[in-house]
Structure formats: structure tokens, C-alpha cells
Amino acid sequence: MAEIISSNKTIAKNTLFLYARMLFNLVVSLYTSRVILQVLGVEDLGVFQVVAGIITIFTFFNSGLAGATSRFLAFEIGQGNKARLQRTFSSAVNAYILFSFLVLILGETIGLWFVLNKLVIPEGRKAAALIIYQCSIVMTVITLLQVPYNASIIANEKMKVFAYIGILDTLLKLLVTFLLYVIAADHLITYGFLLVVSSLVIFSCYAIYCHSNFQECKFCFKWDKEILKPLLVFSGWDVFGNFGFAVKTQGQNVLLNMFFGVVVNAACGFANTIYGAVMGFANNFMMSVRPGITKAYSIGNYTRMQQLITDSAKYSFCLMLFLSIPFLFEGDFILKVWLKNPPPYTAVLCQLQLITLLFANVFFPIRFGIVATGKNKYISMLDGFIFLVYLPITYLILKWGGTPYSPFLFMIALEIIKSNYYTKLLKANWADFKLFEFYRKGVFPCIIVSGITLLSCFAISQLFAEGGWMRLLSVSCTALGVIAFLILFYFWRHEERTFVFNLIKSKLSIN
């Protein structure tokens, strides 16, 4: 029991650090996004969004290898094998060096041809687009080489450091925004160069900290087949799924560019900014929970693993629901305050992205459970198949007169099917997983909370004739109050409520 309480405290502490980082990053990124739109303009921003996204198609292996690196490092930490831990880190770095060269080659051949011949670029901006593309290649390589260091920090659960460097990253992007006003040159090109410098600084911070504080981060340029082979085999199952995701994400941007131009790309970019901000809060929580799931599995504590999967699904969903509601009810007003003149379709694209994320979020911990067991090939095959099917059907939808938001509606339907199938995959690969208990204690409470919260917020919104600060504040406060009440009296057990109330009383009596 004491061990579980200590583990929960670590998760809570790490989550608080990450949320502090995320809140700061959110405030600054909302400001910088507004300034970037004003400085670059809608067309140049759309050019940046679609061109910079092309190179990410060639990093489809990254997510799988990053997840494998985190999983193997956390597993070895749980086992206490320091020598094997160091070999695992070096093997991961070697793998990323190899894949960085692969991305460089693909980017300068296939990717460059696509930018030159297929993208719809406004007249007179092709030269700037090519420079931005080269900057994107450099930033992508830097980001890839940084992954093993990020994975090491996460596996060691040093979220305070992760938070501090994340704040520095945000401050550098804020500095980049200010420098755009000062430097008298093409703003789009200047923006690309400054982002490259910012990426180099952040990479250096991660590398220096890890080499100074973690014994396993002593890089050795040696091909350790005993470690590298299972690492690549494990991540190799994710390649198909991640390739499908990369094709789906960037292919969607290209299709929107081909049918509607760079203005819709800019709108999609802002919708992705909101999506990323809300997703970031959930990811920070999941990032704190994920090592615990892996370590619980590595030592055979399956009861703890089930509890972490179920509880993290509920609480992360509640957090995302609260963050999403202001945009679902007052999206147009928020965007006008934020951007003054948002591109067309920004509000509806933002709302559809958030709805997709709400459905997917409940089942994210299931994915972590599958990865912890090492049986991730079927989930990757499912992801890859759905994402690859998505693109040609989306093309047909747009070809037959679909609107810019039609692909997002289609994605919601696919996400519901895919997410529910994850639970069956986990049950098939982990016999001790209690499927009915997950739906009863995890999914069903999320449905109840979302239904009551949305109805309450809708009722409050009808008291106001038009959108504005008062309606936004009223809806947000209603969401916070309803969700907090339901967590306290519906999610928590009697002993959990008693513990929290006694803790509050003790703190008040001391003061």
C-alpha cells in the first residue's frame, strides 16, 4: 500500500510539473500564433504549414522507435540492470543516427520533387518555400537525434527537468516572434532560420543534462545486436501504423491545399494548434502514467496496471472535456479575440479536431498497456490500415464536392471504430485484462460525465442572447463545477474522499 501511495505521489508530482510547463507554453503559444499570423499573413503562414509538413511524412518510424526506446529504458530501470540500460541508450542513439541519414536522403529527393511539382504555392513565393523546406529538414534531423534524451528523462521520471526545458523552448519561440519585427528581411525565410537555431539550443540542453545526470547516457558508437535487434523489431511493428498516420496527416494537408489552397491550410494549422494544446495537457498526464504502466507489467503487478489504465482514462478525459468545452461552445468568439481575423473554417475545424480527440483519449491508456506487453504489432497494423484507407476515401469525398471539414467528420467515425477495437487487442494479448471492468469503471463514467456536463453548459449558454466574455466565463465555470462535482462524488470512492478531506483539514489547522 505504501509503495502504491509513493507511486501515486510521484505521478501527481510529475503531472503538476508538466501541467505548469504546459500552461505557460499554452499562454505564450497562443500569443505567438497571433503575432505570427499578423507578421507573415495568411498566405505565407499557409505556405509554411504545408511545406514544413511534407518532411514529416518521412519520419513515420519516429513515433514507434521513440515509444520503443521509452518502453525499453523504463523496463530496464524497473529491472535494475544498469549495464543493460546503458547499452539500450547507446543502441537507441545509433538507430536514430541511421534514420536521420535516411530522412535526409528521402527529403532531398522525393520530398523536394513533390514540393517543386505538386504543391500549390502562391506566385512569387516558391523560392521562399524551398528555403523553408530545407530549414524543416534540418529541424527534423535535430528533433530525431533528441528523442533518446527525451526518452531517458521520461523513463527516469525527471519531469521537472522536462518542464524547465520545455519552458525554455517556449521562451525561445517568443524571442523568435519579437526578432521578426526587428530583422528587416523576408519574414518567412527569417522565421525558418530562427526556428533552426532554437531547435539547436534545445537539443543541446537535453543532451548536456542527460550526459551529466544519467549514467546510462554515455554514448558508445557500437552496434549492439543483442539490444538493437529487439529494439528495432519492437518498433518495426509500429512502422506500418506510423507510416499510415504520417500519410493521413500530411496527405490531408496536401489534399486541402490542392482543393482549397493555402488559406485552408492556415485554418487547419490554427485548428491543429488548439488540438495540440489540449492534447498536450492529456499527454503530460499520460507521460507521467506511462512509465508506471510499463514498470507494473515488468514486475507482474497486474492489479496496479489495470488500475492505472482505467483511472488515467477517466481523469485525462475529464481534463480534456473541460479544456474543449470553451471551444465547442464559444469557438468563434475565442478565435476572434485570439486572431482578430481568423481564416475561414478555423472554428469548425478546431471543434471537429477536439471531438475526435475526446473519443480517442479514453483509449490512449489501452495503447500503453499493449506496448507494455510488447504485443504491439496488431495495433500498428490496425492503425496503418485505417489511416491508409482514410486518404483515398477523403480524396473521393473532396472530389465529389465535399467541404473542407468533410474529412474531419469521416475521421471521427473511424476513430470510434478504431478505439473500441484496441480493448479487444489488449484482452487478446494480456489475459488478465478485465475488459468489462474497463468499460464499467472507465468508459461508462466518461459518457455520464460528458452528457451531464454538455447539457448543463448548453442550458447556461441559452441564457445569453449572443456570445461574449460573460457567456464564455459562465460556460467555463459551469463545466469546471460540474466536472469537479462528478469526480468528487461519482469517481472517487468513500475512502479517497475521506483521505482528501482529512488532508485539507490538516493543512487548514496548521495554518
From TrEMBL:
Any single Gene Ontology cellular-component annotation: plasma membrane
InterPro entries hit by this protein: Poly_Biosynth_Transport
Coiled-coil region(s): none
Keyword Transmembrane helix attached: yes
Name of the protein: Polysaccharide biosynthesis protein
Membrane spanning residue stretches: 16-36, 48-74, 95-116, 128-149, 161-183, 189-209, 230-247, 259-282, 315-339, 345-366, 378-398, 404-422, 443-465, 471-492
Keyword flag Ion transport: no
Membrane-topology annotation of the record: Multi-pass membrane protein
Cell compartment(s), UniProt: Cell membrane
Keywords: Cell membrane, Membrane, Transmembrane, Transmembrane helix
Gene source species: Alloprevotella tannerae ATCC 51259
Domain of life from the UniProt record: Bacteria
